[in-house]
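Researcher: Next sequence.
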Amino acid sequence: MTSQQPERERPVEPAAANDPVQAGDPVQPGTPALRRPRRLWIAAAVLAISALVGGIAWAVRPQPAPDAVAAATPQQAVTGFLQALAAGDAERALRYAATVPTDTSLLTREVLDVSHEEAPLAIVNVPEVPGGGPVQVPAAVTFGDQPATITFSVNSTEQGWRLGQVTSTIDPGTLPSALGATLNGATLTNPSHLEVFPGVYTFGEKVPEITLKGARVVVAAVGEDVRAGLQPTLTDTGVKTANRIAANAVAACMKQRDPAPKGCPNSVTVSVGQKVNAKTIRWNLVGDPWKNATYTLDVNDPTQARGAATLTFRFRCTLTQNGETYMVDQTNSVDVRYMLTVTDPKVAVVWQRIT
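Model: Next structure:
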């Protein structure tokens, strides 16, 4: 008698996803899903909520500006600003300002680099100054071999201590656009407002006829208006140009067949009863008056040169008087003053005879 062994249950294999259930086939239950313990679910939920709350708290807490600089004391703010200047980092220097200046056209690395080539900025001492409100910090520095003390007003802000003023302005006087004036190599688009960091600045010009004396300016302060005291003068090229403009103007006047050309320095008086034959008029300039000519530049517009010279003219013509014809050949000298535009020879010269 054979013993009967119960058949082992075969595991039920799940049908393929695309295998339809045939009519009459028994429906097989799927594999039961594994259940996580209840404690694990609670722990995971707590961690998720904690992370969410922490993220929200970090998002809403005050965050420093992306370009902020740390300055926990007035000394740190002043030192950081001066270090940025010494490194030529104009953008970082501006971050120490309580208020960034509106015009930053000259607050650039390029302008600072030229200043450092002329006289490097070095920090000697920045003292600790206690106080919770606005304080004054006197910083000792040098520009090359020149010592200076720059006093900064420093205020406490939410971002840290910041400087009330980081720039000064330079007053160059009148600088017409025709000069093509520059400051530390930068073209001046608005010469009436030159806002700069502390440093050494040199004016230049792009016209060969004029140079600017007193062009070097040391700005050893913030929040001040520094007068440059520029003195525009003619260069050797400028004197030659002015003489040539004046000489050409006189030559044009002498071509006129007139005893007294309008707006010209050459002139003779024709008496009543005399009639000059215009076709016979000849004007000549005797000698070279331009080698002794002198010039000064107009204070309000340095491109305007005031000249002074003594001109000697020879005048020849024929005239009739009382029915008689006479040959005239006379020489006379006259002191003249004149105004010309040294940068533009097309502008008419204005003459004045000094009697």
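Model: Residues 116 and 161 are 26 Å apart (CA to CA). Residues 38-60 form the longest helix (23 residues).
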